[in-house]
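Weekly structure sync, notes
Attendees: PL (lead), two postdocs, one rotation student
Agenda item 3: pending single-chain targets
PL asked that the sequence for the first pending target be pasted directly into the notes so everyone works from the same version. It is reproduced below exactly as submitted, 490 residues in total.
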Amino acid sequence: METISELFTQAEGRRRARVRDEYRRRVEPIDDWAFDADEAAWPTPDVIRGLQAVLRVADASQALGLRHLLRFATGEYLLRQTHIASTNLLARQQAAVVQVPVLDEPIPFWQVNARLIGERKRVLREAVDNASTSVIQGFHEHYREFWSSLFACIEALGYPHLIALWESLSGVALEPMLRWLEAVLRDTDDTYRERMQWHLKRQLGIGLESAKRHDILALFGREETATWFVRAEMLSCFETWLHDWGWSFAEQTNLHLEQRTALPGGSWCAPLEIPADIRLVVAPADGLRGYAQAFREAGKAVLLASLPAEAAGALRCFPDPALLEAQAELFGGLVRTPRWVQIYRHIRQPEEALSLVQLERLYIVRRYIGKCLYERTFYEDSGVEGKEEAYRDALRRACGFSYPEAYYLHDIEPLFSALWNVRGWLLAAYLRRQLQQQYADEWFREADALQALRAFWGQSPYHTVEALIGQVGGSSSDVDPVVADLLSDL
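Predicted structure, written out during the meeting:
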């Protein structure tokens, strides 16, 4: 096996090539590029096994960087090995159309959720959702092909199941983490159900127990704050807030703000070189969701631009995805904060209108916790059959209504996206609590809070997410701050 230094060079070349290709696709070509990556040659199974062996005997000072490098290399290997199956599945989804008997024309499958969000007649939503569920059932053969390919790769790398892979790549034992999440679910349950019942009765005239997936899409698709978040004012609002806080793009030579009139997928953080060349590409958009996405990407950008250049390459270039998600949530969460909206969108009493936005956030967190609990069952062996009931029960417990069992393969993301995201949200909740305690509710305008965050970002590569949670006063034995954060302003 190559040396660790050589492996890092290979991995960093691949990471930069990925970002470069995405930048070319979404923004514009980049002519001058120092790295090239051979798609076919790296990584091999021997590379993965070699990294596994080195990690097993590494001391504490080396283990974190090695784990990050192993996570990236394993992800690249699995992407390549499952490329044919995932490409076939994606092609099927993109080509699929949903035939709804009561409608004159079919709906492209990828447009179904947008159609459900905008449809006010429940009987039509029901017809569209049922027809869409039938289409998803038709994908099951291709999902089985994908998961069979992935499970075979995992076992060939020496992992008995995906839970073992998660624990190896994250350094986190799954069961204690899930107990933590179950406590959050339990302690938010009463408020969640009461508020969901109230909003569903008020908006749609139905109860939570009788709600369907399409009802929830319609409920949260009602944009009651659209006039507060105007597309033409997004960039000036964003820059005004950062200026008030003490952040100047002109002083950050390694963080470049690029404005585009439109961008596939919306605003985006492009880490071309970490931390030397971070690009925040902003495409102004209407509505709270458009603002939130731009702020989320800004959170990732300022974190990456603040990482210490002297940190070991694997710590800098392959940070824990949960760390990035925490920073995205911290910044993105501002646009649903009443005090921020009062100051920067000049709305006198935004609390009532924002309560639905806050409820949507609680719903999303609970839904993802439900997905994590289901994934424990899904990942424990290499079979995909007979897990529909586990999916139904986990999502019903978390959301309070039934999801179609047919979604049990459709509603699961490979490579542990739900688990990374939820860990990030936990860190963000504890971090936000500390900022509020030290700098009050307007911490987002306090220069001292910005300096404290800079110090936090600067030392973050050297610690696990769990250690960072401990640094800001968090503990798996005390979920009260997370619960309070989720229930605030409801």
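Discussion points:
- Residues 257 and 297 are 11 Å apart (CA to CA).
- Residues 174-204 form the longest helix (31 residues).
Action: rotation student to compare against the earlier draft before next sync.
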